[in-house]
Amino acid sequence: MSITAIDPKTALIVVDLQKGVTILPNVVPPLSQTVASAVMLVEAFRRHDLPIVFVNVAGVAPGRNEQPYQAMSMPDDWMELLPELNRQPHDHLVTKRTWGAFTGTDLETHLRARGVTQVVLAGVSTSIGVESTARQAHELGFNVTLAIDAMSELSAEAHENSLSRIFPRLGETGTAQAICEALDRRDA
């Protein structure tokens, strides 16, 4: 489904575009495209004076699984957001330890306090951080829009599965450019 509306109180949520996550190999589509599209969205949300939430990840949820987290040697600044995102003091930062940005954080409270009814999602990884956050937002009753060219994944198959099978059931999808144009039309 393409974008039909941008609510008056819409927030941008940028998931895990941080130094430690973006050093991972074999990103589909190329991370440079994802970052450029995310930056386009950040700039548009700033122009329209809409809330921006940056999410970073600081660990993993406890529990057993068949594909345990493989700890890599990470640089000291691995949790820092990419500088291209130009985080400002009034932007909200959520640090998560699970796949989704709502679990165990103040994200829902922050959005509700600002009257937010819709979220636009971008970031990495398409099938993990972005998809989990989109599922949670949908379950909490937010209108969800997914910026399909502002997200990347380690696996092309997982990326395509999220785009074609999961996201259309959680909300509306569109490019960063289409979302920016919808913002501009809304405020014209």
Task: Provide a descriptive summary of the structure in words.
- This protein has helices spanning 31-47, 107-113, 126-139, 156-170, 176-186, and strands spanning 10-15, 52-57, 92-96, 118-124, 143-152, 172-174.
- It has one domain: Rossmann fold, CATH 3.40.50.
- With 188 residues, it is an alpha/beta fold.
- The protein has a six-stranded parallel beta sheet with strand order 3-2-1-4-5-6.
- The radius of gyration is 15 Å and the shape is globular.
- The chain starts with 9 loop residues before the first strand and ends with a helix.
- The model has no long low-confidence stretch (mean pLDDT 90).
- Strand 4, helix 3 (126-139) and strand 5 (143-152) form a beta-alpha-beta unit.
- Helices cover 34% and strands 20% of the residues.
- Helix 1 (31-47) runs parallel beside helix 5 (176-186) and helix 3 runs parallel beside helix 4.
